[in-house]
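pasting for ref
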Amino acid sequence: MKFKMIALALAMPGLLVGCGGGGSDDEPLQPSDEAPIPEPEPEVPEPRLFSNGDLSVEPSLGTEIPIGIYQYTQTSPSNGSELVGLAIISESGRIALALENSIDFARIELNENDRFSMPVESTETPDDNVSRLLKGGRDTGVGPDALARISGSVINDETQALVHNYRMDKQAPDERTLTLAGIAATYSGIDDTGVGSAISLSSDGTLMGSDTTGCEYVGEVIIPDGGEDVIEMSYTASNCGPTVDIPGDSRDGDWFAVGRIDVATGTLSMFGTNGSIGTRISGTNNDPDEEVVEESATFFTNDFNEEPSIAARLEPGVYDYQDIPLGDGATFIESGLMMISNTGRIVVATDSRLAVTRVTVSDVDTFRGPVVQSETPGTDRPPSNASEIFGTPDNSGGGGSFNLAGSLLGNGGELENRYSATRDTTNDGTFATTPLTLTQLSGTYSGTRNPGAITATLTIASDGTIAGSDTTGCAYNGIANVPNGESGLIEVQIDAANCSATTAATGAERDGDYNGVGDFLPGSPDRIRVVMGSPMNVEFLDLDRQ
């Protein structure tokens, strides 16, 4: 094209000379009033967002950013306070950063330095135009046995101001392999606003569903890596009705979502956005007639109903509990045991604290519940004044044991203690081969505790009936239950009457209805340890078979 333009320009003078002075009657050329044809606007590439594109693999991630479930920790730059939640990364580069009250979405790709800087779609800023960037990369500063850690920051794209820092620690997947045939089921649940959803996944990858506002979902689901617990979805929502503060037409449209699924417990959690709003859907494929924990249930509620989120997100069993000092120079480190039952009941027995609570685990793998506690009799280290317990799985360090990390909080939510807890797997092989039953548990158990040399005796019948007493005059009557024989745990409901005072509680405080969690330790002799609590008092029984 350039050569033709040059040739035409050279020919023009000759043409003009040849025509000049020839007396032509043609009118001279007049300037045009028409606007010049505008140059075409350069095409602006579509921004790379969670809510657009397709489900294809993002090749730049490679092995640098592994697919999987991550513990997500968001840190405030002003005071260092932390929020803990869940992150899910899929092979397309889609990542959901989920806290209990917000979700951030991005679709990452790595540059030549294996770093990313991508736009964020956030449920925290639905009504403004704040533009945020998610920046980060794989952290090389973790131990050699640890799983991947990704760290970075979120910044305001316009002002470059730091919004918050974050880190993501990859969690070890379970030992099951996901297949489309294996996850095929209908998962249903109700969210915090009362909207019920049902998502059906088919063995050919088809996704269909609906919710109680009228939404209809049609799309597809893929499994990026069968060895991880991650799924990714693309679907269209139509005919949606309004929910709290969100009109129906804002909920229609094309959606992408990432999620995780647990085949063993039949639970699904998914986090998605259509570019306008974000959503989270949690459901199970459990039998609707199965007895589960009522929303209003507490540690002291008269039931043995299972809490599905415990088996799905945690591991029921006995844990070694260890206090983590808040500062340098700690002279006393609290330690003992923690037991987590399928019912959501959790008990703690340390050298200074006896505590009970009951929790559910959120869709971002955190739990938080009110604590009733008593001082361990005879301790010279009174416990901190905890009123809540917080926790989350912490399985980024490799190894075979399931771990928890968390904190004890005061009345105003202030931090009192940090703790770690590691599953005690000593008797796992025994109970995997021969799960605990009431028949095996049945018998008479007795033990003495100090101060006061108080001897307690419990007789457990093969139908679970409990009768017993202690040397202060307490009369015990109740029932025992084995919530899950493979965990080796037991639960009890006991009525205590006619109790006298101990060094830790008055007789009136000791009387009442107790619930408890304990474990059975096979040996010579067999042994049970039970932490039982009422709204007024918590006690610990360590008894040997007679």
